[in-house]
Amino acid sequence: MSETMPQEFWQGVEQFNSRQFYACHDTLEALWIEASEPEKSFYQGILQIAVALYHLGNRNWRGSVILLGEGSNRLRRYPSNYGGIDVDELLSESVALLKTLQQIGADKITAASDLDEQEALTLPKILLTNN
C-alpha cells in the first residue's frame, strides 16, 4: 500500500474489488469532497467507474456507459502507476467493458436475468502496484 494514500482510499479499493460499488462510491466521495488536485480527480475517476458498475448491476445501461466513459477519461491524465494502483490496467478493463456494453446495447442488458451469466461482461478490478 502507498504511504501517500489515506486508509479510506484502500477501504474503497477493497470495496470496489469485492463488488460493493455503492459503498465504494460513498467511501471515495468522502475523500473526493475534501481532496485537492491531483488526488481529487483521481478519486473522482475511480468512483465514477464504481457508480457505472453499480448502474450496470441495476440494468441501467445508459448510466453505466456514461460513467464508464467519464471515469476512464478522467483517469487517462494519470501515469501508469499512481497512488499505489495500476491505472493502466483499470483503464484497459474499463474501456473494454465500455466497448462491450456499446456493442451489446441497452436492450440486452435490461433483459438479462443475471449479469454474471453474460460471459462477455468482465468487470474491472483495481490492481495494486509495488510502487
UniProtKB/TrEMBL annotation:
<dbReference type="InterPro" id="IPR023203">
    <property type="entry name" value="TTHA0068_sf"/>
</dbReference>
<dbReference type="InterPro" id="IPR005500">
    <property type="entry name" value="DUF309"/>
</dbReference>
<protein>
    <recommendedName>
        <fullName>DUF309 domain-containing protein</fullName>
    </recommendedName>
</protein>
<dbReference type="Pfam" id="PF03745">
    <property type="entry name" value="DUF309"/>
</dbReference>
